[in-house]
Design brief:
Low-confidence stretches: 168-173
Largest sheet: 5 strands, antiparallel
Number of domains: 1
Radius of gyration: 24 Å
Number of strands: 7
Strand content: 15-25%
Mean pLDDT: 89
Order of helices and strands: HEEHHHHEEEEEH
Number of helices: 6
Distance between the termini: 8 Å
């Protein structure tokens, strides 16, 4: 039976449009100076603490745009399953792309939500390892689609490369402490350094810090620029659709 993956490809194109819109919106947000560097006295330790703080929340629209991109990507894969199933004479009901938390769960989909997909195509889909411990990013995409669409993202900062501190003392005992900075999601800040009381008169922090918008979970995507994650996932979905198209032609489902 003749068929094609036009609907799946259209869904992916729509996802790519959303991803471009998302990238532009993130750049506009980061250009609006949502982070400031501050020096604060810790009343408990009496240390001067240098921090990078988020003072402007990311717009809610970023969550919605990212969610639209992700849902369209997953829908593209489901549309591919539908197209090959109906081309093989199926009713088009149990044609979902086989995601799962492990390989066994993915393979079990041939008895449930993916059971109308022809075996050759189903096996091909499984070969892309859409489960945790296989292709973690594909697994993460499905988790993101099933998560809270209103709380997908966080603005954050992280260390990039170099890290240097210099200070001017007055024959005193001033010291400094450098830690590996980690973004504190509860306080929306990155602690850069602590300076003990001593006789330190002045100090400067010089480092490469990047600011970004990242997905809140799952862990595999946390700390990575969300626009980069969306582009990576779009590439993976495109590769799967192309492979399904080629296999469907090879086995005679599509002309």
């Amino acid at each position: 039976m003749a068929g094609n993956l036009d609907s799946a490809k259209s869904m992916l194109e729509r996802a790519q449009v959303h991803s471009t819109t998302f990238k532009d919106a993130v750049m506009a947000f980061l250009d609006s100076d949502p982070f400031v560097q501050v020096n604060e006295l810790d009343p408990e330790s009496n240390e001067w603490v240098t921090k990078l703080k988020l003072v402007k929340a990311a717009p809610n629209d970023l969550n919605h745009i990212a969610a639209d991109a992700l849902v369209n990507m997953r829908s593209a894969l489901d549309q591919a399953g539908y197209a090959v199933a109906t081309a093989a004479g199926g009713k088009g009901r149990d044609t979902y792309f086989p995601f799962g938390d492990n390989e066994a769960e993915v393979r079990s989909r041939d008895r449930s939500g993916s059971k109308e997909i022809p075996k050759q195509i189903f096996d091909l889909m499984v070969s892309f390892k859409p489960y945790r411990g296989g292709d973690d990013f594909l697994w993460a995409m499905n988790k993101l689609c099933n998560g809270n669409k209103h709380r997908l993202l966080n603005a954050m900062a992280s260390m990039s490369n170099s890290y240097r501190l210099s200070f001017v003392g007055n024959k005193g005992t001033g010291s400094y402490q450098l830690r590996i900075p980690r973004w504190d999601y509860t306080k929306n800040e990155l602690e850069l350094s602590r300076i003990s009381p001593g006789k330190t008169d002045d100090y400067q922090i010089k480092m490469d810090v990047r600011t970004l918008v990242a997905f809140c979970e799952p862990e595999i995507v946390v700390g990575h620029p969300a626009e980069g994650v969306l582009n990576l996932l779009a590439d993976k979905v495109g590769t799967i659709i192309s492979a399904v198209d080629a296999e469907a032609i090879r086995i005679g489902l599509f002309k």
